[in-house]
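Narrative of accomplishments. A recurring question from our advisory board has been how the design workflow behaves on a single, concrete structure rather than in aggregate. To address it, we present the structure tokens for one chain from the evaluation set, followed by the sequence designed for it. No filtering or post-editing was applied between the two.
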């Protein structure tokens, strides 16, 4: 992929997440903290509870040694739920890099309300050009943001570059279950305003090529159809509120998109999971 492709993807993501309609949808249906897929344990859980469990699951992979002296980089930090969890639970400093000015303003305001503004620095920018020196962070973290990258090889290289020796990378992403599914997934990707999806095999190969040690992948794909079904139910439950904010036509398009997402899920075309690994220590 070219740098032009990466820049176009950045612009598309920025435009998408800066719109009031997108912001309202995620805040209302996801609960205003985390906007990624959730790990569900029972039928009564909210999307917010399940999404928080994803944060906690990722945190367990990197929590060893995470303390007030540690610095974490959160790539694609969204509304900031994960950054706040890390800062409040472990006392670490978090740099939250995110492309949406609108989300970042809300993120900063919420941090200030909770007294976490001194521990979380919110930076507007792209994860394909991280404004940090080599070896700056103990942990690089991302939840379901790399799917918006126009150059995922570059995104991973940047993430590993800014990790200190011995530092850890952890991320989730929405993926194609197989490279053979890319054509069938094209309408789905267009609805999400992304060019295509990576595969688990792509990430494994890239991480190995970048020299990460102990790379593991936890396959969480079974939760994807559960999440989209729960999301459709939440949209139905909040029909009046969403209509007031986005309008009838926008809500109709949203329902159509969710129905298509469920069809893709039921066809087994999507994968989702958690990767983590460690940058080898310098010798």
């Amino acid at each position: 992929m070219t740098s032009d492709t990466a820049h176009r993807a950045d612009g598309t993501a920025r435009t998408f997440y800066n719109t009031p309609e997108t912001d309202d949808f995620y805040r209302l249906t996801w609960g205003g903290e985390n906007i990624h897929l959730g790990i569900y344990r029972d039928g009564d859980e909210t999307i917010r509870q399940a999404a928080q469990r994803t944060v906690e699951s990722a945190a367990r992979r990197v929590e060893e040694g995470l303390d007030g002296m540690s610095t974490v980089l959160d790539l694609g930090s969204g509304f900031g739920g994960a950054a706040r969890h890390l800062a409040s639970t472990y006392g670490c400093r978090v740099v939250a890099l995110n492309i949406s000015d609108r989300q970042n303003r809300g993120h900063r305001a919420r941090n200030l309300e909770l007294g976490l503004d001194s521990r979380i620095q919110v930076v507007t920018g792209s994860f394909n050009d991280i404004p940090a020196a080599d070896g700056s962070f103990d942990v690089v973290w991302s939840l379901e943001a790399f799917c918006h990258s126009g150059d995922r090889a570059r995104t991973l290289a940047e993430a590993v570059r800014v990790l200190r020796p011995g530092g850890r990378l952890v991320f989730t992403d929405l993926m194609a279950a197989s490279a053979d599914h890319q054509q069938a997934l094209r309408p789905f990707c267009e609805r999400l305003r992304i060019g295509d999806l990576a595969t688990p095999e792509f990430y494994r190969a890239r991480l190995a090529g970048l020299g990460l040690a102990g790379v593991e992948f936890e396959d969480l794909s079974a939760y994807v159809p559960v999440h989209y079904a729960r999301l459709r139910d939440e949209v139905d439950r909040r029909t009046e509120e969403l209509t007031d904010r986005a309008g009838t036509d926008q809500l109709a398009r949203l329902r159509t998109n969710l129905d298509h997402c469920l069809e893709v899920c039921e066809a087994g075309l999507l994968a989702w999971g958690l990767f983590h690994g460690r940058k080898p220590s310098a010798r």
